[in-house]
């Protein structure tokens, strides 16, 4: 009896398109996008973006970093960084910035980086799930500086934006889908960017595993499994 041949599924999707022209502006993110567009006309050296995963914070941070010539790094990498070396760039973009809270070394680095950039007329853009005022920062001087910075939220999407996001997520994977697919998903899915990403990935994986195109029956079957 011949041995069964395992079917391997490879994720061949391209990296998401994250250029300025790829950012979808809607009511939920319009204020944040406006702040990025107004740079360098900010009231101070620091701006904080906050919102749920997938809301577009990292996308806006990347757009700003490209415009400002900023250094980009993650909050988890800040403790080992040299604040003077970072500040020499004149602009720094810190993603997942809330991770510095409670890490003594990271808090000190961020405190010194803030001061160096302010003295040099530079800029610092932070992105996190929560606004800095809610971070459990132990260093009092850093906490006061963060609380003084403008904090702009990115909200959850409405149906119009979520439909565009779903279409973009499929396009990022080089998948062409019809509007009936998007409408079926909108009728059953949780209204969040994170769920949109997860669901598109699951539909793509099911399509590859079954060796079939993305059809309405396939999508409905996956949605039914979600309850």
From TrEMBL:
A UniProt-annotated Pfam family: Hda_lid
Source taxon at top rank: Bacteria
Hda lid domain span: 165-223
A biological-process GO annotation: DNA replication initiation
UniProt GO MF annotations: DNA replication origin binding
Listed GO CC annotations: plasma membrane
Stored InterPro entries: Hda_lid, P-loop_NTPase
The name this protein goes by in its record: DNA replication protein
Organism expressing this protein natively: Inquilinus limosus
């Amino acid at each position: 009896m011949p041995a069964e041949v395992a079917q391997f599924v490879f994720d061949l999707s391209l990296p998401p398109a994250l250029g300025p022209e790829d950012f979808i502006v809607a009511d939920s993110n319009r204020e944040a996008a406006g702040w990025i567009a107004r740079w360098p006309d900010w009231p101070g050296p620091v701006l904080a973006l906050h919102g749920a995963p997938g809301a577009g914070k990292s996308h806006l941070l990347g757009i700003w970093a490209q415009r400002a010539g900023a250094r980009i790094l993650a909050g988890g990498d800040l403790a080992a960084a040299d604040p003077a070396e970072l500040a020499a760039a004149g602009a720094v973009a810190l993603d997942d910035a809330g991770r510095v809270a409670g890490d003594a070394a990271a808090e000190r680095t961020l405190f010194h980086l803030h001061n160096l950039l302010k003295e040099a007329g530079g800029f610092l853009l932070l992105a996190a799930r929560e606004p800095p005022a809610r971070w459990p920062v132990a260093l009092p001087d850093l906490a006061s500086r963060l609380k003084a910075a403008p904090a702009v939220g990115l909200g959850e999407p409405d149906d119009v934006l979520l439909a565009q996001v779903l279409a973009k997520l499929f396009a990022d994977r080089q998948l062409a889908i019809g509007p009936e697919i998007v409408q079926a998903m909108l009728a059953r899915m949780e209204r969040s960017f994170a769920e949109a990403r997860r669901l598109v990935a699951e539909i793509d994986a099911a399509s590859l595993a079954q060796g079939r195109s993305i059809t309405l029956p396939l999508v409905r079957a996956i949605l039914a499994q979600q309850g």
